[in-house]
Amino acid sequence: MKNEDILIGSHCGMAAPDFYLGTVKEALSYEATTFMFYTGAPQNGYRKPLNELKIEEGYDLLKKSGIDETKIVVHAPYIINLANRSKPELYEGSKEIFLNEIKRTSGMHASIIVLHPGAHVGQGSDEAIKALIEALDEIFDVDGTNVKVAIETMAGKGTEIGITFEQVHQIIEGSRHKDRLGVCLDTCHINDAGYDVHDVDGVLKKFDEIIGLDYLLVVHLNDSKNERGAHKDRHENLGYGSIGFKTLNAYVHHPLLVKVPKILETPYINDKPPYKEEIKMLRAGTFVEGWKEAF
To answer: pLDDT 10s per residue in the chain (295 long)?
Structure first.
């Protein structure tokens, strides 16, 4: 595998005046071969109409760049919780927002959207998983697109679901639309959930046995500020956390993950994105000592 073929990128912003065109330009400035973005603010459901977002201009630049549009990733807003029915108005509102996000994803020429599976907020994990499955099936029944939903593995803070591979498998197997579902594996999250993230082959073997590697659509590549099993979910820059560069680099270059987009969500340093430097190190497979301090 040549370094230029590695599917590695980061979260990119989308803001006025260039909107999606600016998103693509940002990804290219990092020398990325994939990227992830939100179709609006992640903290709310307010969204500008697609015809105001310079989508076609961005799409034209994307095609000229050689980036594979099928490997572009959208992330759903954080306010969605399809796992809790204790407040029906919020549950129904989450379904409405997510249905809209799926349609926007398709309208922006993307085919994968990452979703936090949600939290049960006292209702219990089994009830939460049931609520999520039913909500997703209702959405898939009517949305009319081919967008795939990647359920993100979670760290286990609070009452989150999707902490174990078994729970994610339960979500997929319970759906009437398994072909529309996949998984986003977050390295920080599985570390904080208790998996031995350093055993890369072992993690992927377990994932394959329980869920199936065919369902793995995205990897979120993050170091962690926490030790294994902390259930805290605090991302760290590459090589400065408990996971370390060597292990994260092994995921990037693993032969089973060649076709899977790897997305950095590491923290800004001095209010600046570190992604160009982190991508450069991952392409070379070499950690640069002191890179963060010199940034």
So the answer is: 455 579 999 999 999 999 999 999 999 999 999 999 999 998 888 999 999 999 999 999 999 999 999 999 999 999 999 999 999 999 999 999 999 999 999 999 999 999 999 999 988 999 999 999 999 999 999 999 999 999 999 999 999 999 999 999 999 999 999 999 999 999 999 999 999 999 999 999 999 999 999 999 999 999 999 999 999 999 999 999 999 999 999 999 999 999 999 999 999 999 999 999 999 999 999 999 999 999 9
Model-level pTM?
Answer: 0.96
Q: Are 34 and 12 in contact (CB under 8 A)?
A: no
| 97: amino acid identity, one letter | I
Indicate left, alpha or beta for 124 from its phi (over 0: left) and psi (-120 to 50: alpha): left
Residue 220 β-bridge partners? 186, 263
Asked if 177 contacts 216 with a C-beta cutoff of 8 angstroms, the reply is: no
Beta bridge partners of 9: 34, 263
Q: How far is CA 288 from the centre of its chain?
A: 26
Is-contact 101 39, C-beta < 8 A? Answer: yes
